[in-house]
Amino acid sequence: MAVQAVQHIRRMRGGAQGQLMLGADGQAYVVKFQNNPQHMRVLANEYLASKLAAAAGLTAPFVELIDVSSWIIDNTQELEMDLGRTRVRCRPGLQFGSRFVGGLMPGQVVDYLPEEHLIDLKNLSEFAGILALDKWTGNANGRQAVFTRKARERRYRAVFIDFGYCFFAAIGNLTMRLCAVSTTAMTSIARLWAGIPSNPGSHSSRQCRPKPFGLRRTRYRRSGTGET
Q: Which of 13, 150, 157, 193 is least enclosed by beta carbons within 10 angstroms?
């Protein structure tokens, strides 16, 4: 059952022009509307890929269907889409929502960590897993993450956000996009994520073994402030 949106909080930055809204369950959600400027398909992409990430044990925001009534849209001036030369009202009905990382309490979520602090992340090993997922689902966008910690905790945890451009964004059908990565290459990536070494004597393992994942100075953007 979809969560009913009860209050608009603020507009978010990003290509999908999401809106931060409060749900009837008391949680804050980054809501992306059906008539967003990118494509309606990015909502399905994001929902499915987020579920896949969670099923794989990766840290990603909880996702939900959000029901936004026409009353809220009619009475909230900010609920509109900027299409360049024109503006249109957001479309009422069921929308995609991802739970806002860190909730509404400030100070516990950052969108950037210095490179020397990345090595101290609680879930550093999950970067190999999200790499495998991005490759498998054909993510056509750069990987985004934010970093969160609870009060009085020292170490941060990465939360992987923005899966809208998985399955090659709005191009092609789902069957074609799911089959884009060869089984051999995906098997090699999955073995890397599971910590199983490839057989050095196998030609296919030498050919398809992914390069070791290394930390680079990467620009991350906060969920909703830079999410596309």
A: 150
Tokens, residue 172: 């092609």
φ and ψ of 220, to 5 deg: -110, 155
Pairing status of strand 19-23 against strand 80-82 = unpaired
Which candidate, 58, 37, 44, places its Cα nearest to that of 228?
Answer: 37
Backbone angles phi, psi at 80, to 5 degrees: -150, 160
Please check the confidence at residue 215 and state whether its pLDDT lies above 50: no
How many residues does this entry show for the chain? 228
> pTM score, two decimals?
0.73
Output the pLDDT for position 217.
Answer: 42
One DSSP character per residue, 166-207 reads: TTTTTSS-HHHHHTSS-HHHHHHHHHHHHTPPP-TT-HHHHH
